[in-house]
Amino acid sequence: MYREFEYLTPTSWEEAAASLEDGTSAVLAGGTDLLTRVNARLRPQPDRLVSLRGLPAVAAVSHAGAELVVEARALLDQVVLAEAVKTNFAALAEACAHIGSPQTRNRATLVGNLCSASSAADACPASLCFSPLVRVQTESGLRELPLSELFAGPRQTSLGPKELVREVVFPQPPPRTGSAYRRVGSREVCDCATVVVAVALSLDEAGGIAQAAIGLGSVAPTPIRATEAEELLLGKVLDADLAAQAAEVAARATAPITDIRGSADYRREVVQSVLPAVLRTAHCRARGACS
Ligand SMILES: Cc1cc2nc3c(=O)[nH]c(=O)nc-3n(C[C@H](O)[C@H](O)[C@H](O)COP(=O)(O)OP(=O)(O)OC[C@H]3O[C@@H](n4cnc5c(N)ncnc54)[C@H](O)[C@@H]3O)c2cc1C
């Protein structure tokens, strides 16, 4: 039995925002998450789908000067293939490249992944590492919020009833920045990750860590940054001991659940054992010593 929906294709962003009715509407981007949940009868079930399809065309992924702008309809594949993303936001490119299959990535959007607000969504920890701003379309204009404030709870965003995401703006990382991503799961692709780890490190001229970001997924109700572990790294030179200490602190800061993919203890152990390697890769890239 198929459900019936009201299907709207607004032609302006303001109209799209105005079309969203509280609790009964959903924005439809690629539909790879939303329609799967609708078919599985998971709640909440929308009655109205507001498609992004009719909105005016703009460049999907653009890199001008000091920022990378990923528009709401930018496909995961477009993000993966964008030269500016590969060069400056490697963890994001790697995360997007690991989502689903080629077919999924040709249909699904980065913004849809972020707005699913799933703790296990692969692109969320990597995106968090670059501290982007989310530009939100309201009925009357635009407002901005840090991505970390978009995640309000498991599969819950902080968007208001008549709001949708228009684009995500990533500031250009400082020179000598390297980043890396790793997911651990029972299958390499097409499965929810058991743990997602992403890191971005920026080095000063002497090789010390000037900025550190550690994003984690599937280990708390929402994607998180491991801020205490980040602080531990600042001003120091990465070696095996420091990486192990940071991983221990990061693992302690998680609040995982036990589910079909792994126990809470296993997830903590994965963070502790995988994070040092991800830190090393990001560090190596920041030094320009590996690709
Ligand atoms: C076979 C398969 C494999 C998958 N594998 C993975 C995987 O490995 N890793 C992973 O993380 N995910 C995976 N997914 C889930 C999904 O593909 C991704 O989360 C994808 O990025 C969602 O993008 P979308 O454009 O299809 O979003 P949609 O399904 O259209 O939307 C997702 C959610 O975001 C909301 N939304 C979308 N755009 C906006 C907007 N502009 N403003 C406000 N709200 C918005 C929707 O209302 C909905 O709640 C998989 C899905 C399938 C079908």
Tags for this model:
14 strands; Uridine Diphospho-n-acetylenolpyruvylglucosamine Reductase, domain 2; 24% strand; 5-stranded antiparallel beta sheet; Enolase-like, domain 1; 11 helices; 32% helix; globular; 4-stranded antiparallel beta sheet; 291 residues; binds flavin-adenine dinucleotide; alpha+beta; Uridine Diphospho-n-acetylenolpyruvylglucosamine Reductase, domain 3
3D structure, described in words:
The protein has helices at 13-19, 34-39, 76-81, 83-88, 90-97, 102-105, 110-115, 123-129, 227-233, 240-252, 264-286, and strands at residues 6-8, 25-28, 48-51, 61-64, 67-71, 133-137, 142-146, 151-153, 156-157, 164-171, 177-184, 195-203, 209-217, 224-225. Strand 13 (209-217) and strand 14 form a beta hairpin. The chain is built from eleven helices and 14 strands. The strands form four sheets. Strands 4-5-10-6-7 form a five-stranded antiparallel sheet. It is globular and about 55 Å long. The chain folds into three domains: 6-51, Uridine Diphospho-n-acetylenolpyruvylglucosamine Reductase, domain 2 (2-Layer Sandwich), CATH 3.30.43; 61-171, Uridine Diphospho-n-acetylenolpyruvylglucosamine Reductase, domain 3; 177-286, Enolase-like, domain 1 (2-Layer Sandwich). The chain is an alpha+beta fold and 291 residues long. Helix 9 runs antiparallel to helix 10. The chain binds flavin-adenine dinucleotide. Flavin-adenine dinucleotide is lined by residues 26-34, 36, 72, 76, 99-101, 104, 108-109, 111-113, 115-116, 121-122, 159, 164-165, 190.
